[in-house]
Write a structure and sequence with these properties.
The protein is an alpha/beta fold. 43% of the residues lie in helices and 13% in strands. The chain has 12 helices and 7 strands. It has a 5-stranded parallel beta sheet with strand order 5-4-1-6-7, sandwiched between helices. Strands 2-3 form a two-stranded antiparallel sheet.
Length: 229
């Protein structure tokens, strides 16, 4: 099964780098990480299936009359799950049990660490390279689960959680907040995400941008930016 990106659209699987022609020969001094499907292997199917069964979970995620990723983006942007579920009950009541199952069984969607990424984070940490996070994740579901299940996140100086801050990628304000929390100029930072649109938005905000397609490729891309991995 192809695991969908945490905050919505289809990742690029052909290239690890989004072209940034003004950055030839540039180096980076720190890394801002996306979490979902870069550090954390996430698939909503498993949470939904825990509540309504596999067949119903697949039917919900493949439905033509509702877009799960758009639904999920509301709480990722700061809306409450109560409000999101209430709106779905009005518009698509037949899908309400499925949506409630996702929230209730959310931990089942967190399948473990993405292979190889934690090792890169540890290597950068050992080399004294600053690292931070920028994730589209609801406030309600991030804090009880992610830090507890993924201790590698403790090596990141700050994680900007979109649902906590009320602003989500690819909104420029999300990147600006992450850069502010990092305390370095945008041009000194590289942003890593599995979605091309998010990486392009980061580049537009002045950061280096890398599309994550796997840890081996990422090591090569980070080395090209002068980082010791």
């Amino acid at each position: 099964m192809t695991t969908p990106p945490l905050d919505g659209t289809t990742p690029d699987t052909t290239s690890g780098v989004v072209p940034s022609p003004d950055r030839a020969g540039a180096v980076a001094r720190g890394v801002i990480w996306d979490l979902g499907n870069v550090i954390v292997d996430w698939d909503p199917f498993h949470a939904i299936a825990a509540g309504v069964g596999e067949a119903e979970a697949r039917r919900f995620l493949d439905a033509d009359d509702v877009d799960f990723m758009a639904y999920n983006h509301g709480p990722d942007s700061g809306d409450s799950w109560d409000d999101a579920e209430a709106a779905l009950e009005l518009s698509h009541p037949h899908w309400l049990p499925h949506a409630r199952a996702y929230r209730r069984h959310f931990e089942a969607s967190l399948l473990g660490p993405v292979p190889g990424t934690s090792e890169i984070i540890h290597d950068l940490h050992a080399a004294g390279i600053g690292q931070w996070g920028l994730t589209n994740w609801s406030d309600e579901l991030y804090h009880p689960h992610a830090p507890r299940l993924f201790p590698v996140l403790g090596l990141l100086g700050t994680v900007v959680v979109s649902g906590t801050e009320g602003v989500a990628k690819p909104d420029a304000a999300a990147y600006e907040l992450a850069v502010e929390r990092a305390g370095l100029p945008a041009y000194d930072l590289v942003f890593v995400d599995d979605r091309v649109s998010n990486v392009e938005a980061a580049i537009a905000c002045g950061l280096h941008g890398l599309v994550f397609t796997g840890a081996d490729r990422l090591r090569t891309d980070l080395r090209a930016l002068g980082l010791p991995v």
